[in-house]
Structure formats: structure tokens, C-alpha cells
Amino acid sequence: MEIWINPACSKCRGALTLLDAEGADYTVRRYLDDVPSQDEIRAVLERLGLEPWDIARTQEAVAKELGLREWPRDADARERWIAALAEHPKLIQRPIITADDGSAVVGRTDEAVREAVARSRG
């Protein structure tokens, strides 16, 4: 299991605390330092079952600069969104946990983090 975090994020720190409490085996990826490629973003979106606009942080300053809220949310715009997430990783919702069963969750709640742990344990 891998968790994409921003150490400054309270939801990320809470998810790490819960993973430790659950005795989960995981690796940490500080995605602002180790920026995911467009292919990695596509792969995590597939695992999440979401579209790039579903994991975009539209309140970030860079999102406002880009006018992200006004971008189309359709198949034709999908690659533009993925490129923006790769170029500006602050736009990626966090934390994202990839479970060992091939799925992933956005771990913003304790329930989502526990779900990822359960999926990883089979």
C-alpha cells in the first residue's frame, strides 16, 4: 500500500496515524516532492474509478489562476486536466491511498483509510 501525502496536511497526518494504529504496511510518497507523472495520475484515477476533476483541489491559488472551475469536465478535456495535475501537484486531492488489491481511495475520512487497509489485507 502506498499513501500520497503532503506533510503539511492535517488529513494526511491523520491518515498516517490511523494506518500506524491499524498496523498497516505502507510506503509514503510526498507527492509534492516526488511528483506523479501523467501516466501515474491516469493509473491512480483508474484505481480510484474517478475522473481528474474529481480529485482536483479547485480552491488552490493555482487553480484559480488557471480558471480550473470553468474548464469543461468531459472526455475531450480529460488530458488537459491530467496535464494540469502533473504540472501543479498541489491540485491533487490528498491523501490518496493505493491498496494492495489494485484499488485506491481518497483517504480524507477514517472510514476511507480503514477501507484501504481492509482491501490491502484481503
UniProtKB/TrEMBL annotation:
Gene3D superfamilies: Glutaredoxin. InterPro entries: Arsenate_reductase, Arsenate_reductase-like, Thioredoxin-like_sf. One of its GO terms (molecular function) is arsenate reductase (glutaredoxin) activity. Keywords: Oxidoreductase. It comes from the Bacteria. Coiled coil: none annotated. The keyword Oxidoreductase applies. Pfam families: ArsC. Belongs to the ArsC family. This is Arsenate reductase family protein. The lineage of its organism: Bacteria, Bacillati, Actinomycetota, Actinomycetes, Kitasatosporales.
